[in-house]
Model the fold of this input.
Amino acid sequence: MFSKAALDTGGTFWENTLNREINQRLEFLLFNSDVALKCKEMKAGLMLSWFGRTHPGSLISPDKQFLFYDIEANPQSILSPFTPLAIADIDSVVINMNHIRAHYLSSGFTEVYFCLIPNKVTVCEPDHHPHNNQIHRIEHNPNMKVPLLKLSNQLLQHPEWYHKSDGHWNVSGKRLWLKYVNGMVIEWGNRR
Done:
């Protein structure tokens, strides 16, 4: 592969873009394989057990079962589900969701759906701190005009559907989402 210096100084845009994409795909294949992930987990386990350290920007659950992004698990973060939200905050989100839907409907889309997904700390440690219940409050706002794909109740019962090391779903969580999306598509097709 080319060095970064070679990419910066020579080659066309397409050569550079193609090379960068090939490198990203190779890195993903090599370092996200089962063997590489096991090695990463072993290293992380050693760092935690020997030094009590996790990756910067992450927090470990008190029971040491889950790793969370600091930005979503730290109650001091404005992006956490523990930040108090006023009624006006919820109303603002609903108004913006309605505007987004109206925009795309006026652009020719047949329908626009939203899916509000609880973050990992909400599912895996629901009693971590007092929760702002943002998703529930948005879903039940009387001004909501957007059809919603609601998965919260199912996800809240399955913390094992999240990867231990990051905030994404594993295959089981992805299957749930796909099942609901496919169900909505079939239902929409039957109404036509």
Q: What stands out?
A: The CA atoms of residues 75 and 82 lie 5 Å apart. The mean pLDDT is 82. Residues 171-191 form the longest helix (21 residues).
